[in-house]
Amino acid sequence: MNVRSAFVTLHIGLDTFRPVSEERIEEHHMHTEYCSLTSEVARQVNQAKLEERRVVAVGTTSVRVLEATALAAVGGEACAEACPWQAVSGFDGPTDLFIYPGYRYRAVDVLLTNFHLPRSTLLMLVAAFAGKELLDRAYAEAIREQYRFYSFGDAMLIL
Description:
There is one protein chain. The protein is an alpha+beta fold. Helices cover about 30% and strands about 15% of the residues.
């Protein structure tokens, strides 16, 4: 099926799992975490994008690395469009990227993830990817079918 895999690194901290307590999610402070995406993996991702193949992130940590490096490739949040020949760039350093609804994904096309806690930054990242309505339906189904939630639970593939 012409599927290729590559690996990225994100050293998550406790803040990833800390519930968002602010009324306005924009006011939530995401602490800095270390991430790494090698230039070889960046080349593979960029080649996939050029060939119009989908980039599948396995886990929210992979999403944060790919999206942080996509922002780095275009110079940060202020840039509107990534170059089609450089969706991501190699990166080794800190990120405090907080993805929540309204965020425009630049690198990730498909997400494989588990079911996350309410008010978590991880749930917000998934809601930004799938949309709240679809996510609400998926969680209702998961509850009805007694799926296992959280870090060692069942997973969903969002296309």
